[in-house]
Structures are given as C-alpha cells and as structure tokens.
Amino acid sequence: MQKEISWKVIDLIKVSGVIAALTAVASIILSFFIESLDNNSTFTTVITFVIQDAILLLPIYFLIIRKYKASAEMFGFINIGFKKTLKYFLNGFGLFILTTVGLALIIGLTQKYFGTSIPGFAQQAEHLPLFGKGKFDLAVAITILIFVAPIIEEFIFRGFLLNTLLRSYKPWIASVITAAVFALIHLEFSSIGIIFILALILNSIFLRSRSLWPCILFHIVNNSLAFSAEYFLR
Q1: Domain boundaries, position 25
Q2: 7, 87, 121, 151: which has the highest count of C-beta atoms within 10 A?
Q3: pTM value?
Q4: C-alpha angle with apex 163: 157 to 167, nearest 5 degrees?
C-alpha cells in the first residue's frame, strides 16, 4: 500500500519555480558553449541529458525528499508482485495499441477525404542521430533511452507530479495536468498529441496500481519498440 505523501501543492509550485530558474540559468550558460559543441555526438547528448535531469531532480531532492524525509514508497516505488505488475502493464499496453490503431484510422481517413493531417499527431522525432554511429554510442543510447529515461521520467511525472496533484484535485484533473506537462516538456510539438495520450495511459496505470513499476515497465517496452523501429528502419 502506498504511503500518504507529506508535501503539498505549494511545495510543487516551489519546486517548479526553482526548476524554471535553473533552466533559465543553464540556457544562458550553455548559449556560450553551444557553437563549440557537436550536436550529433554522444558526449554532447549525455551532458545535455545529465544537465536536464539534474535540473529536474535536484529541486525534488532538496525541497521534498530531504525536507520531508520522503521514502521511496511515497513516490510509488511499491512492490505489488510480478503478476499484478504484468497485469497492469498488459492492460495499459492493450489500451495503447487500441488507441494507436484508432488514431491511425482517423488520421488516414482525414488525409484521404480532407487532404490534411491532424496537428500534433506526426511521427515522433528520431533520437539516434543525437548519438554517434559506433557500438559504444549505440550502447549509451540504449542505456539512456530505454532504461534510464523511463525510470527518471516515471519518478518525476507519476511519482512526484501526479502524486502531488492528487492531494488537491480530482484524479481526472490531476491526470490531464500531468499529461499536459509531460507532453510539453518533451518539446516535440509535432507529435504532442501522441505523447499526451501516452501520458494519460501511464497515469491510468498508476492510478489503478498505485505503483510505479507497471508504469516503468510500460515505458521501457514502449521506448524499446520505438528504438528498435528507428534503428532497423532508418
């Protein structure tokens, strides 16, 4: 059973303010070095990834975890057993597949009969070009995109953001706000609709299971499929 969190929405606002300030400072500092960096190198990508995650994680650590002595269970790191984890994952992934098929039909019909595409539902941006072409670069890409990023993102968005909003808002409102933030922060506006729907499904998994592990499993499998498609079809 998930432990009740001890922080409030006001703490979320404080964390958000610090994140915004750190982002502004980091952007100014990086602007002086951006021209000297290779945008398609593993080194640059890893440094960018570390900076971005540090900006998100450090305020949560100092203003939430350290201040309230928050445990992992408060963020949803709860072992619900393999069978339940698999059940919630399969239910969520089945819903995702049905939604994807439905969207594909709607987008296809819209293009056929109206000659236009629906904004926000284009294919997601490729990530492999951000890394080098060697075996080491591929290993780094797999580690970051398939394993590290899903765990960190689930902790931040489901474990912290959604959990905090649930203290003051109805589940559907908290879920919509979380999904919107999740979609916006990825900065892939051409596919923002797809990311938003993906986030809603992840939120529903968390709301039903109250555990991050089915969400993390879903996220890892989804990123694995996207990574494989990009790698083998490029």
Answers
A1: 9-233
A2: 7
A3: 0.94
A4: 140
